[in-house]
Amino acid sequence: MELENLELSHFRNYEEASLTFQPGVNVFLGQNAQGKTNLLEAIYALALARSHRSKIDKDLIQWGENQARVSGSIKNRFGKTPLSLSWSNKGKQARVNHLDQSRLSTYIGQLNVILFAPEDLDLVKGPPATRRRFIDIEFGQMNKTYLQLSSQYKQVLKDRNAYLKAWSFGKKQDQVFLAVLTDQLIDLAAKLMLLKKKFLKELEETSKIIHKDVADQKEELALHYKTSVPMAELNDVEAVKKALEEAFQKHGDREKKQGTTLIGPHRDDFMIEVNGTDVSTFGSQGQQRTAALALKLGEIDLMYQETGEYPVLLLDDVLSELDASRQTHLLLTIENKVQTFITAPSLSEVARSLIKEPKVFLVKNGTIQVEE
């Protein structure tokens, strides 16, 4: 899969921009605050209909304008597909092949991307919410069922939490209606949790090979799914539902007092172990960075397994955060495999020696020039 071109209109600091890319490595060079990351953000938004930097859509619209638009043409084994996404006061509008999409779930997955930024190094040592978001974003691109289940789950969870919150304030509520919401949540949660378990097992398989190479065959990576019921022993929907029902019964009074749902995949996490030790707590910074790099690179092969297409890789100023050895492994892993977009103030000697014939764009004050 590759992105052939990108058109911007009133997106961030770009009034208008039109770029054509090559299948290999494309590099955006420039000093800070010139607009390099805005270009990666535009590609990310074109893929996932959201920014990775802001939850507020209007932040993407150029100051003083009423709407913003990004568009581009993707090429995969089935042919070419034009995509576009626009933001205005009326909301967000997504189009595939120039046809409006009434639901974002039908839009997401047309262009698969993996973003690796300095903050992703916190994937290992950061809070559980960081790892939950990682799973939701990456697996949602690969699997339409996961994306739909996740959306439905979040809506039922929102309704159930609102009901429990009213209960915690002493308002009399209908126990039967709460039971209906709980049953709906359990059904969706069981299916989601089994998909998460499957995803993490597959990610472990692809990542541990890369991790072992980076660590000179001296360390073994393992991922362990942490949730409110013992998923290691559960392998079918009915068994998971039964375990969840028991957990909800056990914590029912606490939920009413606290006014929130205490059980379910919205509270999940996964542990990252290296040689049997929790690397997030006891690993060195080098081990943590190696684990994060392995997980991100492992996603590339996992996406290919799940979708039949390699994703587009976005590297946002991450090379400067990696030492020469990890830079080398990263660049050799992606060589001739995935279309890659890199932002950096400048390219290191390591990168210059390993990247073959990159297409370089010079970015300054919202203007873009192709390096001759």
Automatic annotation (TrEMBL):
Gene3D superfamilies: P-loop containing nucleotide triphosphate hydrolases, RecF/RecN/SMC, N-terminal domain. Pfam families: SMC_N. Residues 3-346 form the RecF/RecN/SMC N-terminal domain. SUPFAM superfamilies: P-loop containing nucleoside triphosphate hydrolases. Keywords: ATP-binding, Cytoplasm, DNA damage, DNA repair, DNA replication, DNA-binding, Nucleotide-binding, SOS response. InterPro entries: DNA-binding_RecF, DNA-binding_RecF_CS, P-loop_NTPase, RecF/RecN/SMC_N, RecF_2. PROSITE patterns: RECF_1 (PS00617), RECF_2 (PS00618). Belongs to the RecF family. The RecF protein is involved in DNA metabolism; it is required for DNA replication and normal SOS inducibility. RecF binds preferentially to single-stranded, linear DNA. It also seems to bind ATP. This is DNA replication and repair protein RecF.
